[in-house]
């Protein structure tokens, strides 16, 4: 007799609960939108009205969310557990799939924050996907994330092409300085960001970081190269202060279309250094003019002439191919010889850098300086490193020298420019290298080649 009334009350209760739930959803939605606006306001306030002249709000938000997500993960530890890696703090249009064309060649590089300003001229010349691993510790980690965000806001070339990764000591965690406006003060355009980065140079001598912190160059190269290989089948690894010849990605793609690479082949890019006062040449003809008058010379000619001599600069300089160098070709092919340190383009899957080598000295002998421990007096080994050239030799690779491509380091490398701890770092890495050579014998037991 009372059932209809009870049903009516039950329906009213359900309706009330549904209305409350709907109001809660609307309220939460309102709070979410309000929080989003507050966050956008807070981040845009870091730059003030100038941010409106940079990236569009949607782009800013996308890069901000990418940055926040990467930082929120806490990074991943490297194999030693001594470093924390934050991948893709910035993600380029290429790696994010916003550009349909698939690049054939990417560049992988690394730097500390006091050399990050060199990314600007490198990017101007490269104009193709570029993966850069930045090492920072302490307050520099926050500064690196802040300036990375500023680059994404104001610099369309960076947004389009650069994937940026951060590496810091494992005991530290990177964070975005949302409440600290100091890194953003006065920034209004892309030039201002590069000027702020330029102001960081000179704080440290090369990569002498102090505080018992070692610059993990080979870890950084592996991070940058691994990310680059996700989007491109071929990668050139070079340090941030090495500028390539113009149009190299397009010319290399043309080479691939005309000539199928051998299964075990890498493409050598001859390396030079130029006086600081000179503009870095774009094409081989311009470089040869400077070479003839001594304004350009082989890389490391003063510090370690044997390290680049096997490139056979005389043959490269005098090589004449079809089309007067209009197309990129393989000029000649070489077997690796001790103690050659070639820079080269390699396909996916090359051996990784040995991450036990850090800082200066023998960080690249795992690839190409096997005889240096026997030399006297000790050489001033370069702070650069290459993919495993020594290991590739043992594994049966051949080295094909490209006809008109090159890399140029701005400034002549001279003795005495390294930090005071370099020789001690050399000594420690010599010990590591002896172990590395023994490891190669075990890794390639059937190979007749030795380093």
Can you walk through the features of this model?
The chain is of the alpha/beta class and 451 residues long. The chain is built from 13 helices and 14 strands. The protein has helices spanning 3-45, 57-72, 119-126, 139-154, 156-161, 190-198, 217-229, 248-258, 284-292, 313-318, 365-368, 389-395, 422-443; strands at 76-77, 83-90, 105-112, 130-135, 162-169, 234-237, 242-244, 265-268, 271-274, 296-298, 330-334, 344-347, 398-402, 407-410. It has a 10-stranded mixed β-sheet, sandwiched between helices. Strand 3, helix 3 and strand 4 form a beta-alpha-beta unit. Helix 2 packs antiparallel against helix 4 and helix 4 (139-154) runs antiparallel to helix 6. Mean pLDDT is 81; it is low at 34-43 and 360-387.
Tags for this entry?
alpha/beta, 451 residues, four-stranded mixed sheet, single chain
Task: Kindly report how far apart the N and C termini lie.
Answer: 99 Å
Give the class from helix and strand content and strand pairing.
alpha/beta
Mean pLDDT: 81
Helix content: 25-40%
- Main sheet attributes: strand count, strand direction, barrel closure: 10 strands, mixed
Assign an overall shape.
elongated
Number of strands: 14
Strand content: 15-25%
Give the SSE order as H and E letters.
HHEEEHEHHEHHEEHEEHEHEEHHEEH
Strands ordered across the widest β-sheet: 1-2-5-4-3-6-12-8-13-11
- Give me the number of helical elements: 13
Report the oligomer: single chain
């Amino acid at each position: 007799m009372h059932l209809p009334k009870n049903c009516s009350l039950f329906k009213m209760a359900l309706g009330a609960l549904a209305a409350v739930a709907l109001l809660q959803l609307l309220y939460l939605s309102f709070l979410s939108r309000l929080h989003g606006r507050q966050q956008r306001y807070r981040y845009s306030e870091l730059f003030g009205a100038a941010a409106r002249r940079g990236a569009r709000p949607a782009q800013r938000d996308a890069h901000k969310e990418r940055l926040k997500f990467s930082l929120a993960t806490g990074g991943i530890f490297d194999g030693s557990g001594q470093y924390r890696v934050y991948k893709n703090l910035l993600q380029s249009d290429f790696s994010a799939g916003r550009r349909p064309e698939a690049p054939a060649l990417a560049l992988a590089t690394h730097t500390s924050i006091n050399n990050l300003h060199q990314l600007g001229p490198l990017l101007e010349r490269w104009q193709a996907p570029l993966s850069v691993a930045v090492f920072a510790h302490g307050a520099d980690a926050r500064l690196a994330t802040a300036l990375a965000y500023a680059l994404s806001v104001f610099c369309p070339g960076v947004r389009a092409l650069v994937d940026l990764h951060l590496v810091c000591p494992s005991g530290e965690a990177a964070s975005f300085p949302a409440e600290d406006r100091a890194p953003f003060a006065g920034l209004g355009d892309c030039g201002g960001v590069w000027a702020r980065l330029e102001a960081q140079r000179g704080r440290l001598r090369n990569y002498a970081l102090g505080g018992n912190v070692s610059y993990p160059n080979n870890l950084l190269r592996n991070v940058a190269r691994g990310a680059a290989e996700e989007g491109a089948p071929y990668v050139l690894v070079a340090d941030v202060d090495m500028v390539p010849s113009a149009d190299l990605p397009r010319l290399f793609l043309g080479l691939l279309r005309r000539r199928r690479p051998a299964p075990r082949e890498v493409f050598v890019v001859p390396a030079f250094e130029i006086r600081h006062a000179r503009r870095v040449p774009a094409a081989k003809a311009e470089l040869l003019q400077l070479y003839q008058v001594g304004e350009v010379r082989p890389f490391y000619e003063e510090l370690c002439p044997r390290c680049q001599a096997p490139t056979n600069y005389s043959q490269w300089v005098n090589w004449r191919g079809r089309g007067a160098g209009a197309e990129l070709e393989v000029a000649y092919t070489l077997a690796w010889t001790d103690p050659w340190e070639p820079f080269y383009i390699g396909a996916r899957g090359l051996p990784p850098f040995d991450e036990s080598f850090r800082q200066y000295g023998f960080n690249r002998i795992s690839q190409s300086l096997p005889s240096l421990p026997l030399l006297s007096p000790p050489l001033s080994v370069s702070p650069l490193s290459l993919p495993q050239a020594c290991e590739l030799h043992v594994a049966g690779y051949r080295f094909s020298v490209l006809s008109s491509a090159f890399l140029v380091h701005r400034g002549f490398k001279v003795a005495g420019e390294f930090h005071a701890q370099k020789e001690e770092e050399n000594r420690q890495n010599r010990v590591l290298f002896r172990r590395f050579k023994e490891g190669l014998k075990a890794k390639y037991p059937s190979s007749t080649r030795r380093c």
